[in-house]
Amino acid sequence: MPLRPETDLLLAVDVQPDFMPGGALPVPEGDAVVPVINRLLGRFAHAVATQDWHPAAHASFASQHPGQRPFASVTLAYGAQTLWPDHCVQGTPGAELHPALDARRFELVLRKGFRAAIDSYSGFRENDRQTPTGLHAYLRERGFRRLFVAGLARGYCTDYTAEDAAELGYEVVLVEDACRGITPEATAAGTQRLRERGVRFLRSEALLAG
Fold it and tell me: For the structural domain made of 8-53+87-208, what CATH number should be given?
């Protein structure tokens, strides 16, 4: 697939150790996305990363809800919320971008999920679906029109980011082998949502070949 250097952007979502095997909220084979994303970074003139960045007492953590266990669902002020193990806590090694990721190539690292009362899957807005992160304003000001989404995890942060990007008017491509999902069921549901919104799917080989 030919790239448009000045209006295409690689968007790497939450490539952090806590989402890798051995991390606090591991995605199966999550570490496999790192070399693929690094190869893609060599092809794109522009790249941005998102970074989950939670305070220790974040409302999405099961530890903040006595009697609840991780992966249960509760209702918060903005609606249904899955409870997670404590993860990507600000200032911890698990919250950093993965050390093998070529972070020198990112022109912006946008932190999300730092508001204690609201979780944040999408790189564009919080889970209340109202509070913007500022990413759209940045991309619009820079003139980017097509986004290639990679990272972790399918069904959640990569998919919500791609879905919101399509809703905001970007042409969106999800790089399948540069992503991994928490569960097959969440990935399948995310794929259906994204296809309904016109998101394209391809593998990295289509980009790396030229």
Answer: 3.40.50.850
Residue 62 has pLDDT above 70, yes or no: yes
Rounded to 5°, angle at Cα 104 from 99 and 108: 105
Of the candidates 123, 119, 133, the one whose C-alpha atom is nearest the C-alpha of residue 76 is 119
Residue 144: phi and psi, rounded to 5, are: -75, 140
| pLDDT tens for each residue of 122-179 | 999 999 999 999 999 999 999 999 999 999 999 999 999 999 999 999 999 999 999 9
**DSSP, residue by residue, 131-189:** -B-SHHHHHHHHT--EEEEEEEEETTHHHHHHHHHHHTT-EEEEEEEEEEES-HHHHHH
Asked whether 120 and 60 are in contact (CB, 8 A), the reply is no
pTM: 0.96
- Domain parsing of the chain, residue ranges: 8-53+87-208
153 token code pair: 């995890």
The residues that are catalytic are: 14, 112, 157
